[in-house]
Amino acid sequence: MSTSLQPLRLGKEGETGLFIEWNDGHRSVYTWKNLREQCPCASCREEKLKAEDPFRILTPEELKPKPPLAAVEITPVGYYAYKITWNDGHDTGIYTLENLRAMCECPECRSSATQNQQTSSA
Q1: Does any domain span residue 38?
Q2: pLDDT digits (tens, 9 = 90+) for 11-25
């Protein structure tokens, strides 16, 4: 990716996500759920690698209803990334511009990703 690729504008995409308008004319969209699941911090990456324990006992806190997942703050980190603070209290993920662009969920990018997966599995 070119180092000149920069976001021009960020904003909420309804109540369920984020949009970024890039200086190359592309408009990326993301759901809060996918952004949170793809958190790049070390503790989240480590958690994803752990095997699920089907006999783990859920705590009362885990069983309480939770508000819909959402970002409460998005802060630039230099000129290369954003830090997202979530309403679940998590705030250690630094999302680089390259990662954000690669995670785009717009129809054009999803179609392209599907085609790439089909090509690589053939």
Answers
A1: yes
A2: 999 999 999 999 999
Indicate which CATH number applies to the domain containing 18: 3.30.2020.30
Model pLDDT, residue 66: 84
What is the three-state SS of the chain? CCCCCCEEEEEEECCCEEEEEECCCCEEEEEHHHHHHCCCCHHHHHHHHCCCCCCCCCCHHHHCCCCCCCEEEEEEECCCEEEEEECCCCCCCEEEHHHHHHCCCCHHHHHHHHHHHHHHHC
Q: Per-residue pLDDT tens for 56-65?
A: 898 998 888 8
The answer to the question of residue 57 being in a domain is: no
Tokens of 24: 């190359």
Could you list the residue range(s) of the whole structural domain that residue 115 is in? 7-51+67-121
Q: 70 with 32: CB under 8 angstroms?
A: yes
Please check whether residue 90 lies inside any domain of the structure.
yes
